[in-house]
Design goal:
Layout lengths: L2 H17 L5 E8 L3 E11 L4 E2 L6 E2 L3 H15 L10 H4 L15 H5 L21 H4 L21 H13 L3 H10 L7 E2 L6 H5 L54 E3 L1 H12 L3 E2 L2 E2 L3 H8 L3 E2 L22 E2 L4 E2 L19 E7 L2 E8 L4 E8 L14 H7 L3
Helix pairs in contact: 2-6, 2-7
């Protein structure tokens, strides 16, 4: 065997072994409209203490946070506080415009569906306490000047700090507290955005997120206590949340990915959506609002958008091919789409998450009335090993193996 061939074989073998490494923690919960139907919890929430993970332990759930944020938006729409199709500039207090298309307004519907023409190239979470999110929008890299708002899909985290900023300006309430009032408390969920409103007992049960090398992400390694500063500190290093002002910095509590919630909590979100907005006799959304969230506003066709996330380096993977308002639809029967981790062609709605070694999913089969929520930690940065664009581990969780 030639040296180059042998080297390639060895590299392939080592890569396969790396892919086969066991996650640090694996949690999977299935449910229907009436309740949880099965629970799997394996591994540890914290390697330093050996604490076993449970389905009731809160974890940074990554981009599933977007779906939960959108539920809060729809509650404000139903109350008449927000309008999905109004120019958000009016509430922001400054013009949100793609500089190449200065006459085209950007709306909540466009932000929620990643069709705003924004990108993540200038950042999306780096604005500190006391800073102005609008500074990011002054950077030309924040804009896709080749495509007008409403004409192209590009998965962009920056959309959601702007959504949160609009919510704050409309209500005068801090985003994390607003989400408590609108979504988490009505659903009976113990959760929070960036820990500020969670209690000490919840923080003591937090799941530490480990990367593919088994190293903990420092922001999720709480050592049993809430963080001293639950947000990005001010430039002088201080962390006085009294500096917060409505509508200055919608990124502060990470609406794009900072929700701390358990798999059991995710199941409650899923059951509410399966129940057309109602959970255990409590109406959170109207059926019309649920349909507005889950109905795709974009479907992949060549030239219509990108099917991966530039923030992770996976631009054209076929991972996202149908998207509504913070809700993805799986199993798109279109060439170039690889969005069916279940492998059965059934269209499911929900959202995925990936951050710092965590991979997560919340997926609902609305026709059968069944759903599944999962998360795993200790994963590599890319989704590897699967037949679909999802990871092999996620495919196993999707298929119940």
């Amino acid at each position: 065997m030639k040296k180059t061939t042998l080297l390639a074989a060895l590299l392939l073998a080592s890569t396969s072994l790396a892919h086969a490494a066991e996650p640090v923690a694996t949690v999977r919960v299935t449910f229907d409209r009436d309740g949880i139907t099965s629970t799997l919890a394996e591994g540890v929430a914290d390697k330093s203490t050996g604490r076993k993970v449970t389905a009731g332990d809160p974890v940074r759930i990554a981009s599933i946070s977007k779906l939960v944020t959108a539920v809060g938006v729809m509650r404000l729409v139903e109350a008449g506080t927000l309008d999905l199709d109004a120019d958000v500039s009016d509430l922001l207090g400054w013009p949100l415009r793609n500089p190449a298309y200065p006459d085209t307004p950007i709306t909540l519907r466009l932000l929620l569906s990643h069709r705003s023409s924004l990108t993540d190239a200038a950042g999306y979470w780096q604005t500190p306490l006391g800073g102005q999110l609008s500074d990011i929008l002054d950077d030309p890299r924040a804009w896709d000047t080749a495509h007008a708002p409403g004409t192209y899909f590009r998965y962009t985290n920056l959309n959601f700090p702007l959504v949160a900023q609009v919510m704050e300006r409309a209500t005068g309430e801090r985003f994390d507290r607003l989400m408590d009032r609108l979504v988490l408390l009505p659903l009976g969920i113990e959760g929070c955005f960036n820990w500020a409103t969670c209690n000490d007992a919840a923080a003591a049960r937090a799941v530490v997120i480990y990367n593919g090398e088994g190293e903990p992400n420092k922001d999720d390694d709480l050592r049993g206590h809430k963080p001293a500063c639950p947000v990005s500190p001010a430039e002088d290093g201080s962390c006085d949340l009294a500096q917060w002002r409505p509508g200055d910095n919608g990124a502060l509590f990470a609406p794009q990915g900072g929700l701390r919630i358990s798999a059991n909590g995710l199941a409650r979100v899923g059951r509410m959506l399966l129940g057309e907005g109602e959970l255990d006799g409590v109406r959170v959304l109207t059926p019309e609002s649920v349909r507005a969230l889950v109905t795709p506003l974009w479907q992949y066709a060549p030239g219509s958008g990108v099917t991966g996330e530039a923030d992770t380096g996976d631009v054209d993977t076929g991972f996202t091919c149908r998207y509504g308002m913070a809700v993805q639809t799986l199993a798109t029967p279109v060439d170039g789409c690889r969005d069916d981790p279940f492998g059965d062609g059934v269209p499911r709605v929900g959202h995925s998450g990936s951050a710092y070694g965590l991979q997560s999913g919340l997926w609902l089969d609305r026709e059968s009335g069944n759903g599944v929520a999962w998360f795993v930690t200790g994963m590599p940065g890319e989704r590897l090993g699967g037949r679909s664009a999802f990871s092999a581990v996620e495919e196993e969780l999707a298929q119940g193996r």
